[in-house]
Amino acid sequence: MTRKRILICGYYGFANAGDEAMLMAVIEALSDISADLDITVLSGNPEETMARHGVKAVHRMSLTAILKAMLAADLVISGGGSLLQDVTSRRSVFYYLAVMQLAKLLGKPVVLYGQGIGPLRGGVARFATRFVCRQADLITVRDKKSLDVLKDLGIDSKPVVLTADPVMAMHPVDKLSGRMILRRYGMEGAKTLVGISARDWQGLSGFKIVLAEAADRLIRDYDARVVFMPLQYPDDLAIAGEIAGLMQEKEQVAVITERCSIGDFLSLVGNMQLLLSVRLHALIFGAVMGVPVLGISYDPKIEGFLDGICSNVVGDLNTVTADMVMSRVQAVLEDETILAGQNACVEDMRGQALKNAELAIKMLDKK
After folding, report:
1. What's the whole-model pTM score?
2. pLDDT at 67
3. How confident is the model over 215-242, as a mean pLDDT?
4. I need a surface site. Which of 36, 188, 195, 339 has the fewest CB within 10 A?
5. How far apart are CA 87 and CA 110, in angstroms?
6. pLDDT band at residue 158, thresholds of 50, 70 and 90?
7. Residue 119, preceding bond cis, omega within 30 degrees?
8. Which runs of consecutive H residues, i.e. helices, occur in 75-143?
9. Which bin fits 300, alpha (ψ -120 to 50), beta or left (φ > 0)?
10. Helix, strand, or coil here: 167?
11. Of 164, 185, 200, 178, nearest to 88 (Cα)?
C-alpha cells in the first residue's frame, strides 16, 4: 500500500512546550485516523524533531529541502498555533504565507489546521493573508475570534470550519512523573498546589509585581505552595525567577528550572489544584488535565480559548490587579461547580479538536 505523504509547517523545533505539544497532538490525531501516513515536518531543529516525534524533518530555512519535501507531499498542512499574526513578529506571518503559496504554485492541496488567525494590523500582512488564504483548500480555526478575522478579510468562499485548538485532542496523562518532579523541588505534601506560568511581553513589568503579590497572598490565605512552570525553555525561566524574587513569602515557592518533556509538563500540571497562566498552552494543558485554570490575557487568543471552556480572563497584562486575581482564586477554590462546568466544555472541545484531523484526512483521501 502506498503511504500518503503529509508535510507540516509550524513553529516547531524551538523548545516551546506548547508548540511541541501542538505538533504531537497533530501527529497523533492524524495517525489515529490513518495508519499509512508518511509525515515530514519543517523544523528549526530537525534532529530534535525527529527524535522527539518519530517523524521525518527538514530545516525550515532550507529552500532546497523544503522544495524536495513539498514536491513529494500529497498534502501540505499549515498549523496549528497562531501563525498568521503580526503581533509577536512582523516577519513570521510572511514566512508561513510563503510556504503555503509555494505549495499552491506546485499544485499541492493546502489545509490550515486548527489555526488562530490574527491580530493582523499591517496592511501588507492583511493583503497577503487574504491573497494566500483564498487559495487554501480547507481552513479550520480554533476559536470564533479567528473566524471573525477571516470574515473581516473577506475569506468566506472557501470551506472555513470552526473547530478547537489541536492540543485539546490530547488525552490526560498519569500524574506520577509530575509528582517525582515536585519531590525534587521539595513540593510534595497535602498543601494546595498552585501553578503559575508567565511570559515576558513588550517590556511590561507591572503584571510581574501583581503575580508576586497574588502568590504571596495564596501562601498566606490558603497555606498554598506555589510552583512556577516555564513553558518556553529557557525564555520563561528568567521571568519565573524574577517574579519569585519579588515575593515576600519564599519558603513555599519553587521554580522548575529543568526542561520538561511534554508528558512531564502535562503530568506536573495535573498535580496542581489551580493554574494561573499568561501562556495559552499552559491553560490548555490545565484544561486537558482537569485542573481549574485562570488566564491573564496578552492576546485575543487567550480570551478565545477561555470562551471555549466556559470561562473568561481575569484581566489583561495592563489592567490586572492582585485583588482581581484573588477574587477569582477564591471563587474557583471554593465552588466545585466551576470546575465541573469547565470540564464539560473541555470534553466538547476535545471532539471539536479531533475534527481538525478528520477533515484533513478527508481532504487527503479526496486527492
Report:
1. 0.87
2. 98
3. 95
4. 36
5. 24
6. low
7. yes
8. 92-105, 123-133
9. alpha
10. helix
11. 200
